[in-house]
Amino acid sequence: MRKKQKKDQLLVDEQTYERLKSHLYSRRPVLGEDSPFSEMLQGMVNQILKGEMENFIEQERTGQKKNKRNGKSVKKVLTNSGEIYVETPRDRNGDFEPELIAKRERHLSSGLDEQILALYAQGNSVEDVRRLLKTMFGVEISAGKISMITDKVLPEIENWRNRELQSFYPIVYLDAIHFKVRNEGKYSTHAFYTVYSIDWEGNRDILGLYVQGSEGASKWGLILEDLKQRGIEDIFVVCTDNLTGFSEVIADVFPRTIVQKCVVHQVRNSLRYVDSKDAKKVVADLRKIYTATSLEQAQIALDAFEVKWSKQYSYIVQQWRKNWDELMAFMNFSKEMRRMIYTTNPVEAVHRIMRKLIKSKAAWVSPTALTKQLYLSLMQNKKSWCRKAYRWIEVQRSIMEKYPERIPRKT
Q: In the listed set 151, 175, 206, which residue is the last one of a domain according to the structure?
């Protein structure tokens, strides 16, 4: 049986022990301002720096170099245990370079940066992060310092944006989400373009995030050109909403790509001017179209819809007939593939993750700040959108059987 540890076995004196015990019983935060634990860290850091100096001077003497201690300098250092005062030893020749905390360093690398990035990734503003750090750790840190720490992720974002992509993607979803950006006291809406994909092995990935002033087919064309420059040679199916001119832009960049317009978007558009008393019946009849077992059956369902509703809602029939080929493109595939491409819901699920994490934000100070926070939010919650596609082997097999010429040999 292990013996109970006695008080005199602890690496603290009697007075410190009583302070630690009193602090724990007070139910105050273990770390932070006025915490004995922060004082212990301070003492440990100073002892380590003192040991570094002693080792340095000893080596100098071994090398027959005349040098000795020359006092110390005191500075305030931030840690995730609160602020501590560090006594950095000096030598006469000025050659000593401490390893634990460098001469001009103002915070101890003990996870503080990671804490700030994690808080920022959860949708907190810079001021929110400042307040939370003060509450949790008793750390006072300026807004400029927090911004500087979060800016460290910008090179990472740039490398991620420019990374080389695979040559072939079976499915790519394209959609935009809108946010407000504040500039010189004025608010403007910016479109945040998301390119979400499934590769040949069934792995989901975000291929790019782009911020533009507004959404338009021409801007999507520039994004597709960027994807092409980064290595994509062919996309089998692109799933989009019903943005005007989208299909033509896709055909210009990837002429072999099949365009699947989102059926869910089409149903929503169809219901825009339907009387409330008819809405449920119209939805039920539209459902018969896109849940049909074949393209021929879907055409029969559309004809039946026209006979029943054309007098009241002729615009619905016109919309469906105008976009018929791209709305019904999914009918040419297996059941598993149909389920994955008839709607842009997968990329909209990514957008829901963004909105949930940053729902408290009214606006951002710049497009860069918006990109930085959304990128961190997505990377911190990667498991939510990066899982493997369901029953992907069956989808692979159906593509290979029906479109073998589209599969690159190296794949």
A: 151
